[in-house]
Write a structure and sequence with these properties.
Helix content: 10-25%
Organism: Photobacterium lipolyticum
Family: Belongs to the acylphosphatase family.
Largest sheet: 5 strands, mixed
CATH architecture: 2-Layer Sandwich
GO molecular function: acylphosphatase activity
Active site: 20, 38
Number of helices: 2
Strand order of the largest sheet: 4-1-3-2-5
EC number: 3.6.1.7
Length: 90
């Protein structure tokens, strides 16, 4: 399996609903690394790195998010592979 990194911007009702916490939890369950960070425009930026299959699994989860959130749009781009320790909530 190849290793990839993807940066996603998640728009909708994604701040103040535990989105970053749940994203980190889901990522760690599948051995992924990266971060989830609130942005000033109300969206959440997610960097996720790991095995391509698991990254795609998390990206699919991001389309729904946790129960209290509402995801309207996701923009994602693949980045050059980089090693990241853990899954940080910023």
């Amino acid at each position: 399996m190849s290793q990839i990194c993807v940066k996603a911007n998640v728009k909708g009702i994604v701040q103040g609903v535990g989105f970053r916490f749940h994203t980190a939890h889901e990522g760690l369950k599948d051995g992924l690394t990266g971060y989830a960070m609130n942005l000033p425009d109300g969206s959440v930026e997610v960097l996720v790195c790991g095995h391509e299959e698991n990254v795609n699994k998390l990206l699919a989860w991001l389309k729904e998010g946790p129960r209290m959130s509402r995801v309207d749009k996701i923009e994602a781009e693949e980045l050059e592979w980089r090693h990241v320790d853990g899954f940080e909530i910023k």
